[in-house]
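User:
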Amino acid sequence: ALATLFYTLVAADRYASVAVVSVRDTSPSASASSSSVASLLGGTGGASLSLVDTFFVQNYIQSSDLLFKLDKRFNLRAHYSAPRLDLLYRLSADARREDFLDYFRNRVKVTLDDTSGLLTIEAQGFEPAFAQKLAQAVVEETETVLNENAHRIARDRLAFAEQEVERTAKKQAKARADLLAFQTQHRLLDPLSQATANSTLTASLQATQAKQEADLKAAEAYLSEDSLQVRSLRGQLEATKAQIEVERLRATGTVDGSQLTALASQYQNLMALAVFADDEHKVALTTAEQARMDTVRKLKALMVLEPATLPDMATYPRRIIDWLTVFAVCGMIFTIVLLAKLILHRLRRL
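Assistant: Predicted structure:
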């Protein structure tokens, strides 16, 4: 009888607004990493990579931080305490924070579909328009916090990237200074090119020497040794041999106490370090610029697949189901009391 009276006259209608959302990462780097992971795993990597964000959203929606933001925005405590007669489903005006949070978690619910990764948000209110506004605010506040966390991570990455830019710039400057000091000290612009040119010239002179020797032997076969042509060929051959010796001494000799080949090897090492420092600095600059872009743009998004609905009829309380539950419990209690009474009556007779 009390349940009938309560659910008929006292229980206040509660309207439920439902929104369906999905967490998506809009940053290009995340999309690239998702595709690479997907190719490695042989499936769609985007959903698995956003699963952490999905769990974050699911837990944040029922957190005290979101509760206090929504309470400040909509005065939730006053709204949920409004139906004075409904002592069972209303919030006590002097409820503690813990009780307020438990009540909020019973009125704003979120469920996760493990298959599709979709989040269904249900917000309850004693007025249809209030329930819809509350569901919309939950989506907005959650997306804001999701992006704030992503921006904080991006700012940390930007600070590290800027440090890397400064470090690589110093490394690049030192590598170029070492290369310039080497060239100035040994008065060589490019020992490697000079060694290559020397080797090419020596090979050309040796080919010329071979031809001159053949011409000299051919001339000596039918001319006397004192003839003008033989003496001329012999002179050219001696000059070529002397030049080959000069080039050999130049290649194997020393420049400031070091061999040209050794200087070429040192120069090659310094040049490689300078090129590596340039490439490293370019990568650092690109990373810093990417991080700087990430600090200002939208990185995370709650894709609203179904916007917050405006309920036409009350969803709660489920009056018939709740009344039948009370009736079944009362029937069980009545049966237990009746059986206990019969047992006591028989024991008294014995």
